[in-house]
C-alpha cells in the first residue's frame, strides 16, 4: 500500500462525493419508477425517509461502487457521466443483496438503523429486493446502445456470481470444515463479482474494448477480495460504534469467514481449542446459541487471534490489494485515472467500517 495514505489527501473523498453527486439523482429517479409501497420501503432502505415516512438523511454507505463506475468511464476516455447508468445499476444490485442478506442473516441493524425486514416485515424485504434487482437491469439497458447490451451482460454474470456466493456462505455455516480456498472462492463471488463489475461497467458503456474492461474487472475482483478480508476482520473485532453492527457480529451468525477458516487450518493448541468449541457450537440450536453471553464470543475471538486467523487475514487483504493494483498496469490508461484507482484500493484496505 502507498505509505502516504492517498485517501487522506482529498483524492478519495472527492471521488466518493462525485460518485454520490452524479449517481444519487439517477438512483432516486430509478427508484421512483416503482409503485407504492415498494417505492416507499425502498426509500426507507436507502435512508431517504424514516420508518414513519418523514424525510431523513441517513448514512447511505461508502459509495465505492459508484465511484469505480464513473472512474472506469474515464479509463476508456469517456466523461464520468457516461458511467452513471452503470453506477446506478450496480448500486441497485448491491442493495438487492443487502435486503435479502439482512433477512437471511437475521441482522436487525444496518448503518445504525433498523433493517427493512425488522420495520416492514420479511415479505416486503423480499419483494423490494426483487424489485431493485429487476430495476437494475432496466436501468443498464436504458441507453439502448450496443455498449449498454455489453454492460448488461457483465451485470447479469456478476449478479449470478453474487447469488452463488451468498448460497455458498449460507451452506458454510452448517459445515464443520471449510478450506481457505473455498472461502476465497465464496468471497470472490459474493463481494468480488460486483466490485469487478463496477470497475469495468463504466468503461464498457464508454466503448472500451474487452482487454481494458477485463483488466479493470480483474482489478475490481481482487479489490473485492481485499475489501471482504477487511470486512471479515471488522466483522469480529470491529467497534460497533463505527461499524453499526453488534459486537462479534460474524461469530454470532456462525460465519465461516476468513479469520475463522485460517485459524482452523492452523496448527497448535489455540486452533485445537477453537475447533472443539466450534464443533460443539455447530450442534447447538439457534436458541441455545443466542443465549451466549459476551464473554463466550470474546473467548472465540481470542482463540482465532491466537491461532493466527486475524494476522493471516490482514496479510491476505494486502496480498489482494497488491494483485489489484498490478492489474491496472496491464493496459494503457490515463496516468491520473490509474492513480485514482490505486487510491481507492488504499482506502478499501485501511478503512475502519
Automatic annotation (TrEMBL):
<keyword id="KW-0808">Transferase</keyword>
<keyword id="KW-0479">Metal-binding</keyword>
<dbReference type="InterPro" id="IPR033749">
    <property type="entry name" value="Polyprenyl_synt_CS"/>
</dbReference>
<dbReference type="InterPro" id="IPR000092">
    <property type="entry name" value="Polyprenyl_synt"/>
</dbReference>
<dbReference type="InterPro" id="IPR008949">
    <property type="entry name" value="Isoprenoid_synthase_dom_sf"/>
</dbReference>
<comment type="similarity">
    <text>Belongs to the FPP/GGPP synthase family.</text>
</comment>
<protein>
    <submittedName>
        <fullName>Polyprenyl synthetase family protein</fullName>
    </submittedName>
</protein>
<keyword id="KW-0460">Magnesium</keyword>
<dbReference type="Pfam" id="PF00348">
    <property type="entry name" value="polyprenyl_synt"/>
</dbReference>
